[in-house]
Prior knowledge:
The structure holds three protein chains of three kinds.
Chain A (H helix, E strand, L loop, with lengths): L3 E2 L2 H15 L9 H11 L9 E10 L5 E10 L2 E6 L9 E4 L4 E4 L1 E3 L12 H4 L5 H8 L2 E6 L2 E4 L9 E3 L4 E2 L7 H28 L15 H7 L5 E5 L2 H14 L4 E4 L7 H6 L3 E4 L21 H7 L3 E4 L19 H10 L4 H6 L3 H6 L17 E4 L10 E6 L2 E5 L4 H4 L22 H9 L2 H6 L12
Parallel strand pairs in A: 2-5, 2-6, 7-8, 11-12, 12-13, 13-14, 14-15
Antiparallel strand pairs in A: 1-5, 2-3, 3-4, 6-16, 8-9, 9-10, 16-17, 17-18
Helix pairs in contact in A: 1-2, 5-6
Chain B lengths: L1 E2 L18 E10 L5 E10 L2 E7 L9 E3 L5 E4 L1 E6 L29 H6 L1 E6 L8 E2 L1 E4 L5 H4 E3 L3 E5 L4 H37 L3 H7 L11 H11 L3 E6 L2 H11 L6 E5 L11 H6 L3 E4 L4 E2 L6 E2 L1 H8 L2 E4 L6 H16 L4 H8 L1 H7 L16 E4 L10 E6 L2 E5 L1 E2 L1
Parallel strand pairs in B: 2-5, 2-6, 7-8, 12-13, 13-14, 14-15, 15-18
Antiparallel strand pairs in B: 1-22, 2-3, 3-4, 6-19, 8-10, 9-12, 10-11, 16-17, 19-20, 20-21
Helix pairs in contact in B: 3-5, 3-6
Chain C lengths: L1 H10 L7 E10 L7 E2 L2 E6 L2 E6 L9 E12 L1 E6 L28 H8 L2 E6 L7 E9 L7 H4 E11 L16 H21 L7 H7 L4 E6 L2 H14 L3 E6 L8 H7 L3 E3 L4 E2 L9 E2 H8 L5 E2 L11 H10 L4 H6 L3 H6 L17 E4 L10 E6 L2 E5 H4 L4
Parallel strand pairs in C: 1-5, 6-7, 9-10, 10-11, 11-12, 12-15
Antiparallel strand pairs in C: 1-2, 1-3, 3-4, 5-16, 7-8, 8-9, 13-14, 16-17, 17-18
Amino acid sequence: xxxxxxxxxxxxxxxxxxxxxxxxxxxxxxxxxxxxxxxxxxxxxxxxxxxxxxxxxxxxxxxxxxxxxxxxxxxxxxxxxxxxxxxxxxxxxxxxxxxxxxxxxxxxxxxxxxxxxxxxxxxxxxxxxxxxxxxxxxxxxxxxxxxxxxxxxxxxxxxxxxxxxxxxxxxxxxxxxxxxxxxxxxxxxxxxxxxxxxxxxxxxxxxxxxxxxxxxxxxxxxxxxxxxxxxxxxxxxxxxxxxxxxxxxxxxxxxxxxxxxxxxxxxxxxxxxxxxxxxxxxxxxxxxxxxxxxxxxxxxxxxxxxxxxxxxxxxxxxxxxxxxxxxxxxxxxxxxxxxxxxxxxxxxxxxxxxxxxxxxxxxxxxxxxxxxxxxxxxxxxxxxxxxxxxxxxxxxxxxxxxxxxxxxxxxxxxxxxxxxxxxxxxxxxxxxxxxxxxxxxxxxxxxxxxxxxxxxxxxxxxxxxxx
Amino acid sequence: xxxxxxxxxxxxxxxxxxxxxxxxxxxxxxxxxxxxxxxxxxxxxxxxxxxxxxxxxxxxxxxxxxxxxxxxxxxxxxxxxxxxxxxxxxxxxxxxxxxxxxxxxxxxxxxxxxxxxxxxxxxxxxxxxxxxxxxxxxxxxxxxxxxxxxxxxxxxxxxxxxxxxxxxxxxxxxxxxxxxxxxxxxxxxxxxxxxxxxxxxxxxxxxxxxxxxxxxxxxxxxxxxxxxxxxxxxxxxxxxxxxxxxxxxxxxxxxxxxxxxxxxxxxxxxxxxxxxxxxxxxxxxxxxxxxxxxxxxxxxxxxxxxxxxxxxxxxxxxxxxxxxxxxxxxxxxxxxxxxxxxxxxxxxxxxxxxxxxxxxxxxxxxxxxxxxxxxxxxxxxxxxxxxxxxxxxxxxxxxxxxxxxxxx
Amino acid sequence: xxxxxxxxxxxxxxxxxxxxxxxxxxxxxxxxxxxxxxxxxxxxxxxxxxxxxxxxxxxxxxxxxxxxxxxxxxxxxxxxxxxxxxxxxxxxxxxxxxxxxxxxxxxxxxxxxxxxxxxxxxxxxxxxxxxxxxxxxxxxxxxxxxxxxxxxxxxxxxxxxxxxxxxxxxxxxxxxxxxxxxxxxxxxxxxxxxxxxxxxxxxxxxxxxxxxxxxxxxxxxxxxxxxxxxxxxxxxxxxxxxxxxxxxxxxxxxxxxxxxxxxxxxxxxxxxxxxxxxxxxxxxxxxxxxxxxxxxxxxxxxxxxxxxxxxxxxxxxxxxxxxxxxxxxxxxxxxxxxxxxxxxxxxxxxxxxxxxxxxxxxxxxxxxxxxxxxxxxxxxxxxxxxxxxxxxxx
Lengths: 467, 408, 394
């Protein structure tokens, strides 16, 4: 049986959500008794105690390679406490039964627009009830960059939204600005010279105490810290020549560039790999090379795969980083996984594509100690899906952030009608396919193993489909 | 005897109009405004105030009695605690907590004649503008000058909250200003006390004369800090306006640990999302001002009765007209009736138009319900209060018949 | 091995007797009986399919291509495309029944090539919706190996393009026909004149092709959106004129007219929008393809309106329709057999059956899955795209 064993707190949350979102609006207070009961319960005097939460019996895709079938993810105070089998759990643990479902780390969007409300300055502007926020949660996203700030898509609270500020530092090195290129080269040279001088000073100081520190005049301290390996610069670059020059510059000075765009990266993948570069790419980026151009160029569906094979770590982002409800679907953040699927189309493995939506963006943003994979000690951010996350029919059923359920497909009107869960509490009139959902499909969802998603698209042998 | 509406002869008001100082009303049904209903009620009015009210009370011989018909219902005079009726909406957009809406009251005028006729006997006028625009005033709807009109000044400090840095900072900055004023005042006091101590210790009369600090003089009050000091002291409360659910959370964040009394103003737009925080607001037992509006659940054509939902969740409801036009006031009772038809409790609705508004303004000791000691502000209706066809028969304000014609 | 065999094949494409045999893990015929062979085999001879069924003995002279792990399906048929070439609309007159898309066609251009690489083999290239009657489109094949107009054309004119409601209203405000009333007259006037000419056996060069539409000889594809636009259109072309018509787009709240279209028996060619939120009024993100299918609209088909949606993402229109509530197989049918039937070309394309064009696509799996790519595209038996040789175009 797939049941939510609810603690008092969740009962209240779920009831509230159902009342607000899905159930027909009650006049005359017909749901009053329930609400009252929940209220009374929640108003019991609370002692500060550990909050336990567990996702039980799901197939756990940790995002680090391991897949644990039918395992449990146990969380304490919003952090993953343990992953495995037959775990000891305190009695008060709130559990979510994920049998037949898959558990993945929450997706990390390495760019976004309009998910959090006004955008920047999250602590002061975040809208924890926004439509786009809910749609993004329903698409599996738990963490996203907005402006130059990383936030978590916390529903209904302002607590713990901001994860990091000043995430990326940009450098420009492009043939469109020769002066800028020269200037960066000069500054890097000065910074390198300063570092050498300083290293020498450190040695000499031991002998001569009166020795003066080398002058920092005209030295860019940012670049010194870059050469110290303290941060990774981001370049916006697409063209082969720019990419090559960035790769060479990086190798010369020993820093690891992050390249946004990287359209022609596949033509210089080895160079980028040698430079230890990472790429933030859009697999469906489409800019065919000019017919006159003899060399290889332009966009390629294989970009992600080729770069990955050359050792360039790849984070994936769609061309449209907002939520689009205009009707032409499959191109925005709501379909982040579709974008990753296109990387697979180009030859990337499913695992690498998923990493491109989870751990890789987390690493590039320097938040991989908290999010991006399911590991003990990391934030309990995860999604529970009804199938392979990269399959086009898969829907996120629940989203968990910091050990709390922040999204339930059935509690919101947006997707609840599409292939409701077998144990759905939705009224028949709220199902799109009422009476049409074949029991076979329901059974397949129950089984929920790897083959299921592919099989789902097959018609019954000799059957007439729906046409 | 016939009580003539005083309005018909405003010039003769104080001098010649026959004022009946002591009279009684015998009514088959009185809605008190505090949730109670009285049957076969008698209201004894003297000097503009309710002396006694109760069921089946005997009336002394000689006291004129207004006998009401079987279908007639008495309700308290209406209180609109949040209005800019007849006033300009132009204001500042920054923080001016010291501005008083009472300063805008006309020096001369007929009061609020049209509102009186509708049955509105108390009006809360808030300061215009955004940010922190100032303090509201409660007025009677009858009176020729500010002195006659004002029931209570500085009823609440109006604050407009929002999910942005500046709106949040306006609140915390206000309290910071209060802090720094207190700090300065404390130093000033300490300085004076030291001087005083020195003065007291000095024995030499000649020297003592030079050291005399005189009586303590506090530093100049800071007009920006004063309102926030009063909020903390509990002598002033705030009415904070929000329009989205997120606004509420950011408001709580901005308030932090600061403790003061505040009520909420929630503007109901067509697709408002404030329903997300109804439970939290209700749990906090907040008083909430809103219009009697049925809204739609976002993205749907599903109607929601948010006022009813707020009331059920435990919030104290104040319902105000949908706008500041006379027509909006005329529609007010009918609009509330629509919300009642859609599920809002009758008594909650009635007190939302009377007593709760008076409480918000802090004038509930004077008006808002039909209880002894309070002003004799009441409306005689010819039927059920929230029936669309029900009409106002008469309006009595401070014991005076201000609208209608009734036999006494 | 496949490579070598292919080279042989390419070296001698002209030999009519050459037989090409495809063996695949799973064969979706998309026939009326919805037959699936797993494994399956097709044999192509002289551009036609001569065998479709389970694998059997292959004669020695045949070229055998073996894809044991792959799926095979008919080439996709897209009835609403604008990538055939430049010059989408002649914007002077509101109705242009005399115009044809043929002179605009640039066979095998880059956009068509990417479409071919993604399994699209038949396209209806049509004028835009800038005017009420844009003219006649061409049904052509997505051949990419040195194609010429003659080698790609399937039927010319393939059908008429009409645009009713929405877009044509954006013309200059002083033009006649910026209102629905005006548009309706523009269309009705010329259509009835053409009908009369046909009835009287009168020749009028400007109206000749339109007469064929009015007599049911040629299909008409009508751009229309919104529920009232959809119903207006179907009433005029299906009920009044009794033409072989198909409503194209049907976007926004057009799905609300689905039951009405089903009653009138009017087919729908849906896209590029396949989801509606704003008009659903129940808070749902509504898969509109699912709504049309559920209402029982006949021969439901999908389109890209390319380049609105790139031609190579035609399959994704099906995938997204399936994501938002439709059945995957039904959506594949909406990109193969159904559009072929709507346009009366089902004897040539749309399904894998003996006697039909050998337009065959080999996929690495479920054609709707974005992770899956094509390995081989045959058009009339010729290898037009081979992944191993041409690389991953898309």
